Structure formats: structure tokens, C-alpha cells
Amino acid sequence: MNKTVLITGATSGIGQATAGILAENGCRLILTGRREDRLIQLRDRLISTFNSDVICLKFDIRIREEVKKAIESIPEGFREIDVLINNAGLAAGLNPVHEGSMDDWEQMIDTNIKGLLYVTRLIAPQMTERGSGHIINVSSIAGRETYPMGNVYCASKHAVQSLTKAMRIDMLPYGIKVSSVAPGAVNTEFSTVRFKGDKEKADAVYNGFTPLMAADVAEVMLFILNRPAHVNIDDILIMPSAQAYSRDFNRSGKL
Ligand code: NDP
Ligand code: 8X3
Known about the structure:
Bound molecules: NADPH dihydro-nicotinamide-adenine-dinucleotide phosphate, 2-hydroxyethylsulfonic acid
Strand content: 15-25%
Structural class: alpha/beta
């Protein structure tokens, strides 16, 4: 696949796995995140394994000036971005609204909604100008359902669903594809981040069933990008077999 792809949140989980599968399939990659050591490690691995063209951009997606500076620094050869994968995101905390942390709320809104918008605003114009491009937003089952104590995280992913539709409508005249990938439980660093390093709580999320792995979601990304020009995958909901609803799991150990 002869495409230049920018992936936000490539230092871990879904973003990292997507970088791997796209490198294997011949994409040029721009990997982004805050943890530079991880970006460099991944870049070096992809170069040595697949002989890929890869660059890294370290920035905090919540800080508008940092995002702008990083995107403007993209070197010649990587500037024509065919695909933007808006993946960076997180949940912080799991509390009822009346006990929620406002810092957590700001972190989720600033990352999952505003950060996604900052990057899109900076990259989408070159796509509309060219009349080609594809944006994939990583949403969640939390963008379809609201579950107990998920309040602000669920709201942020509902916003991603809504923005996905909005982007598809606004960029339709320019031939830009816009897709959404909404996974259920994926075993990444997500729960460790949500529970602020409490491994016991994080591991309990996946007790008694086989969650999705980041690679399962990465395969969906590849499928979306491999469709012919006249086909767009608007929206994919991908769940572990043991999950029927945002909080309905079969924890029998059989699935
Ligand atoms: P991880 O925690 O493994 O990865 C999250 C990625 O987001 C990291 O690369 C992290 O990079 C990046 N990120 C977070 N905050 C910022 C920031 N302020 N600036 C730049 N990058 C940031 O989780 P997942 O891979 O699971 O999450 C990826 C996406 O998938 C998220 O949008 C998440 O909401 C969504 N999702 C996850 C599910 C799950 O069950 N795991 C299910 C459904 C959706 P760094 O820390 O280096 O900055
Ligand atoms: C992550 C999945 O159900 O923990 O988006 O919100 S969930």
C-alpha cells in the first residue's frame, strides 16, 4: 500500500499495533505520542524489520501550539498525508458524576475531543486541496452506549462518533473518506491508565474472558484502508466474543 499515514497515539496499544501492520504492508508512517523513547524504539524496529520509511513526532495532543509546531515540522517526503488515524485517547477515572475529578474530565475532553480536532484541522486542508484522503477516528463501544460511571469518557466518545459524521458530511464534496472504528474491551494500557497505575483494578477488567488484542483492531484498520476507491467503511463496531454490551461480559472463562 503506497500511502503516507499519520497515527496519533502510536506509543502503545492500538496505535502501535496499527503502525506494525501498516509498515508490514508498505506504508510510510508518521508516528506520534508523548513518550519519545517508545516512538524511537518503534521506529527503529519498523525500519529494521520492514525497511519502512518512518518518522516520529513527539507532542502532547492537548497543547495546540505543540501540535501545530510538530505538524509544521514534517519533512519533505512525508508532507502529503494520505491517511490520518486519530487514535490517541484515554479514560481517566471511573466515578459517578457527583464524585468525578474535574482534572480527569479536562484530560479526557482535551485529549479525546479537542486533540483530535486540532490534528484534524491541521491535516484535513491538504486532503481537501488535493481531493483525496482518508481519516479514521478511533471511537469506542462507549461512543454508542453510556455505562455506569463512564459519564465523561462516554460523552467524549459520543463526540467522536458525532464528529466522524460531521467530517464525512463536510468533506464529501472533496472525496475524503471518513471512517470510525469502535472497539469493545481491548487489552492495552488503557485500563492501567484509567486506574492510574493500579494493576489489580486494571487486570480485573479482563477477568474470565479473552479481550480483544490491539492486533485485532489493527487488522480492521488494514481492512478499511484496503477497500477499493468507491467503498468507504463508515463505522465498525468490533467486540470480544465474550462481550455483548458495554458492561455485559461472559466471564465463565470459556470465551
Ligand atoms: P493505550 O493507553 O495503550 O494507548 C493510548 C495512546 O494514546 C498512547 O500511545 C498515548 O501516547 C496516546 N496519548 C494519550 N494521551 C495523549 C496526549 N495527551 N498526547 C498525545 N498522545 C496521547 O490505549 P489504547 O491503545 O487502548 O487506546 C487507543 C484508543 O482506543 C483511545 O482513543 C481509546 O479511547 C480507544 N479505545 C480503547 C479501548 C480499550 O478497551 N483499550 C476500547 C475502545 C476504544 P503517550 O502516552 O506516549 O502520549
Ligand atoms: C474503552 C472500552 O468499555 O472501557 O473505550 O469504555 S470501555
